[in-house]
Hints:
Strand content: 5-15%
Strand order of the largest sheet: 2-1-3-4-5
Order of helices and strands: HHHHHHHEHEHEHEHE
Shape: elongated
CATH topology of the largest domain: Rossmann fold
Amino acid sequence: MHEQLQGIVDGVRLTPSQRRIAQCLFEHAAAVPYMSAAEVAALASVSQPSVTRFAMALGFDGYPALRRALRSPGAGEPPQPAEPIGDDLRRNDLQHAIHGEIDNLHRLANRLADGSSYREDIATAAGLLAASRPLPIVGLRAAAPLAAYFGYFAAKVLPEVRVLDHGGSLLADRLEQARGAGATAMLGVVLPRYPREAVAALRDARAAGLTVDLIAEDRSATSLVTSLVDHVIASRDSSGAAHE
């Protein structure tokens, strides 16, 4: 096992955190082929995405591929990728888009570390939403499919979920009805460009006495609705989106 790992690591330039991961693998050589990325991250005191990046730096698609190689007798050489990882010049437009989303997920995972304020914000918002009976979910225009997606899975664990995906006066009535039925919180989903009717829906929810949790692409959306929202779950921190 030591020889296999040495053969994979030899000649690869590693960052300090990646060298720490490699050292951890050498120290736990017998157990590594059966450990998850999360377990390796905990042992090496790094984030789980760091373990994934370590495996990719060695030429693998991810940590599971590295683990499979270490389980295979004599498999000292990693598979050669079609293009070098990180070689932006050789990626086509579709690959750029996919790697961009991978980077976004890595950043999101890092923001969700134990003890982070972002993780605490999500836990607080989730508690308020889970306690609402029923739970209204508002998503208009481009946000409607996301609201429906969230509502589908929320309905598996909550007794009553109401997905509201049409604006106008009827939406205000339905929010009032939800409040009258016992709702205490509402989840709003807004995406660029942020439609006026979505802002109006948040205002109607507050007028009805509901706590408002908001899912937005970035925190710039809150400049439009700061006084209308109690908690914001933003997938990233900056955007140049405009308000319709």
